Structure formats: structure tokens, C-alpha cells
Amino acid sequence: MVNMIPVVALSETSKKQVLQPFHLTATGYNLNYLPEYIALRHGFFQEQGLDVTVNIPTPWDGVLDALADGTADMALGGIWVPSMYRDRVQHYTVFAQIANRCPLAVLKRGSSEGFKLTDMAKSTVLMKSGGGASVGLFFKMLLRENSIDERAVDYVQDLDGVMLGDLFQGGMGDYFITDNLSALAMVARNPKVSIAMEMVTQGDIPWSVYYRETKTITPEILDAQKRFCIGLEKGIEWVLQHDAESFREELAELFPKVPVNVAVSVTNDFRRNKMWTSTSVSRQGYTRWQQGLSDAGLLKEPFDYEAMVDDAPAVEAQVEVVK
Predict the structure, then answer these.
(1) pLDDT attached to residue 16
(2) Is 67 helix (H, G, I), strand (E, B) or coil?
(3) Which of 303, 278, 321, 266 lies closest to 95 in space, CA to CA?
(4) What is 2-101+205-322's CATH number, 3.40.50.300, 3.40.30.10, 3.40.50.2300, 3.40.190.10?
(5) Which one of 84, 127, 136, 263 has the lowest number of neighbouring Cβ atoms within 10 Å?
(6) pLDDT digits over 74-97, tens only?
(7) Where are the domains of the chain?
(8) What is the mean pLDDT of the segment spanning 235-244?
(9) Coil, helix or strand for 295?
(10) Residue 69: which H helix or E strand, with range?
(11) For residues 256 and 252, what is the distance between their CA atoms, to the nearest angstrom?
């Protein structure tokens, strides 16, 4: 099953321009991808001569199949996947980043006043895992970074997020970890639960990146990647310059199943807390995440930045945008 991302119709002027197809396969549809959706809707990719189209395969790991068979020009998802595959199955090169922070939140029943991360030791934590392993990977890394034994927590994480959310509200477990948007929507509906922590405040990490099979990269692909990054940089800049209240109608169209006030609140929270910075992968965040992946056993040891990331398309794009 494949879901297509809707985009606005091209103007008559845009239709006359010959655009280069540049297809993206993504692991999900999330608010932390917002600058990409804005770039699509506002024509920032079209300005660079790219006809960017997007699909979301089900299951999500179909993105790797799309890269392998050449039906996709790039994949969007967690950097833990190309890291885990390197030197084992396939080499992928990351060329851009969109989400610079973790978009998760910790929910608890009752008031969150006075909450401390150490409170979660010897508790039962429900974590959604339908989109991959990143939820558990990040949370357990956060525990280790705060000198909390991850083995002191019981985990329920092999179920759908909606199912776990219903079970949590029904009394299962002590905490529930889900995406920030879903967390705030649950709190808006249920006064008996509260947000104990928004992980967007917990430091830089390359949460969502764009990548491609290394062996398929050509000078023509690098040029298209640079132009894609220019469009994405403009999308990031646009979101950072506009209070979410000023484009609430767009947010309502993009996320129709979420109360618009919730979408506005989360967007402004992400704007304030550096969810979006630039298309370049932060070296500090990269090093932190590689260590977390290594400590979790996904990697034998962390990979050097240059082994996984080619920052040239993003850097060149940033130069073009500021001209």
C-alpha cells in the first residue's frame, strides 16, 4: 500500500516550465517535516526546476526497496537505518537534514508538576514503534545520558501507537511516549493525562534526514540534491519567519485530523526549540546519535561524519539562498 502526499496544482506559468522529476519516498507524514510541505505548497522546489513528488510506502521500510529499484531519487527517514545498514547490507549517503530535534513527548496520568526523568526508573513505559525503532532508541539513550539504568524500566513497544494510546488512557503502564502532536491532541481531549516532557528540548540530533544509495550518486544527482536543498532551505526559513497562527489555515489543510489549535501550538513550540535549523546535518548532533546507536548495539562503533554524510549539497544551497 502506498500513500501519496497531495500538493497544490501548478500555476499556468509553472506548467510551461520543464521540470525535472525528483521523487521522494518517506517513512511517514509528520509535523516535523513541515518545511518540506511548505516548500511543496509554495513552489520553492519548482523554482529550482524540480518536480518533487512524495509517496509513503506501507510498511515504511519500502523506502529502501524504492531506492534499490530506482523508483525513488531519495528517501526521508531516520539516520539510524543507513547507519545500521552500512558495511552490512548497503551503503547510503545522507545529503540533508530536516528535523534537528526529537519530536516525541512523554505522557503521564495526572499532573506533571515536579516531574523528573529519574521518576521513570522502575516504571512501565509504553512506546509506539510502528514507524521504526527510533522512539525506543532515543528514549533509552536519554536514560543512559542521565545515568539511569535503562534496564530498570519495563517497556511495551511492539504495538500500534493508537492502540497503545487507548491502553494507556485505560490504565496500562505508567508513561506513554508518542509524537508531540499526538501527545498534545490527547491532552486536549483528556484532562486526566498531562505532558511530562517534550523531547524537542533535549538537544540536537539528526532525527530525520534525506539519503540515497551511495553507488548511484552522479554529478547530475548532486546538482539536483543541491537544488532540492535550496527549496528546502527556503521552506525552513519561511516557517521560522512566520508565527504558526498566521498560517493556521495551511496547517488545518495539512493535518485535518488534528485540532488546528494543537497544530499551531506544536509548530510554534518546534520553531522556538530548534526543530528546524538548516539542511546541514549538525556534527554535534550526529556524533551524539552515533554514540547512542552504538551503545544500543546497532553499530559496532560510531561512524565518522564523512563516512555517512556528504554536506556539500546543503552547504552550497545555503550559499545560494543568502545571495
Answers:
(1) 59
(2) helix
(3) 278
(4) 3.40.190.10
(5) 84
(6) 999 999 999 999 999 999 999 999
(7) 2-101+205-322, 104-201
(8) 98
(9) helix
(10) none
(11) 5
Check: CB of residue 51 under 8 Å from CB of residue 260: no
pLDDT above 90 covers what percent of the chain? 91
Judge whether 196 and 112 are in contact, CB under 8 Å: yes
pLDDT of residue 1: 38
Determine the distance from the C-alpha atom of residue 149 to the mean position of all C-alpha atoms in its chain, rounded to a whole number: 27
The pLDDT tens digits of the residues spanning 291-308 come to 999 999 999 999 999 999
Inform me whether the pLDDT recorded for 2 exceeds 70. Answer: no
Helices (H) and strands (E) in the chain, counts: 13, 11
Nearest in space to 185 (alpha carbons), one of 196, 193, 175: 193
Q: What cell was used for 104?
A: 516525541
The DSSP string of 111-175 is: --TT--GGGGTTSEEEE--TT-SHHHHHHHHHHHHTT--GGGSEEE-SS-HHHHHHHHHHT-SSE
pLDDT of 13: 44
The dihedrals phi and psi of 281, each to the nearest 5 degrees, come to -75, 125
